């Protein structure tokens, strides 16, 4: 019996530090469990540093590839974990912003959790979208032109030719991972 995401490829992008541990590791595990091939790309490639609650340094994780070596055409979906340092660093990374725009232009699924939607602001792709995020990101999203913000464990918004999936915090990861799997499975 085949897995729901057998043959699907998902890219998870991070900076090299400040990543909220569970927002990286739990989607990697869950999406692989659904049968997807999941690649972790980081800004520089190599070692990435995770944190718990943005303050407690946790384990390091080896990424599979540098963002400069990734093509969006090789993947079915993009996932952006949170962590304030991770998200703030990624939003300044031209390679990450280009990847986000390439996924959007191709009409693919993009998922972001917690502070991850900050990168979507700088990529200029949230106009017309209703989403959720960590509560402190709400005003930033509204000021950047989001159609709306909701306080929900997961929000799936299909508008403007692509699907956006967002969640608030690590507590929402089960719903976040399930929504990604459903969107990618079609």
TrEMBL record:
Q: Where is the DJ-1/PfpI domain?
A: 8-182
Q: Which PANTHER family match?
A: DJ-1 PROTEIN, PROTEINASE
Q: Which UniProt keywords apply?
A: Glutamine amidotransferase, Hydrolase, Protease, Transferase
Q: Which domain of life is it from?
A: Bacteria
The root-end lineage is: Bacteria, Pseudomonadati, Pseudomonadota, Gammaproteobacteria, Pseudomonadales
Which GO biological process annotations does it have? proteolysis
Write out the GO MF terms: peptidase activity; transferase activity
Q: Which InterPro entries match?
A: C56_PfpI-like, Class_I_gatase-like, DJ-1/PfpI
Q: Give the family from UniProt.
A: Belongs to the peptidase C56 family.
Q: Which protein, by its recorded name, is this?
A: Protease I
